[in-house]
Amino acid sequence: MTYSEETLRRFLDGELPADLTDEIVAAMEQDDTLEQRILALDEFHGSVEPEATGLPDEAKRQELEEWLREAHARFEQNQATRGKLQGESASDRQRGSFALVRRWGALAATLALGVVIGAGGYDRYLQDQPLSWQMEVASYQALYVTETLSGLDNSPEVLSEQIAQVSDVLRLSELGPRLDDLGSLELVRAQVLGFNSLPLVQVAYLDPDGEPVALCIINRNDVGQDSELQMKELLGMAAASWETEDHKFLLIGRIKDSDMQTLATEARSRFL
User: Which of 8, 135, 155, 256 is most buried, by the most CB atoms less than 10 A from its CB?
Assistant: First the structure.
């Protein structure tokens, strides 16, 4: 079977259904050409190179190993939470972590061999691996817990000031009703962040169980067009993305996929 480039990219990012992921893994074992296509699409393939000199000192090695452990633990925690919500088995969650293991496994193996990552050491490696804005958002959102947002002042006066600020940044008028409580989600905060010199707005919500959910909006640096919802999984969290002519959107949180689709559908309708 021939797989499209988009399908293979989603395979690399761990966004495909379990049955299709298994199918592609099995096909790779029989088809060297398919394996080479996938490796060619993988931005991490070839990034790890051994060096004969310039090995990182023990402090740096321990720092990177700790970073890997924390990142992987955070991912597994998100996977377990979503697995309970979705009724997934442990084997389903293990399969869903394929993309993370593929990327960070190579990094951990390199550390075990005592080699430097890339030509300039691990610092340069980490700096030279750009994350997409959606993955940056996911990494940030993965740190959120109920207590992160529950103590914030979300009075009408405070929210009005915050919405006015993000409205100016996004160049969107009448933004208040668009960012108001979303379905069962309570609006808690709106703030301006940034990504690659572009303003990125994070609108934070809490669901009835106290689970943080974020709607993130980034200005486009090109002219686009309206797109349909794209459901995905990022770092073990349910996510939905869409685009308009001037902005890109991502709704993300540790909630059920079905709930995410319902909420994202409503959120998208507010910006069309």
Answer: 8
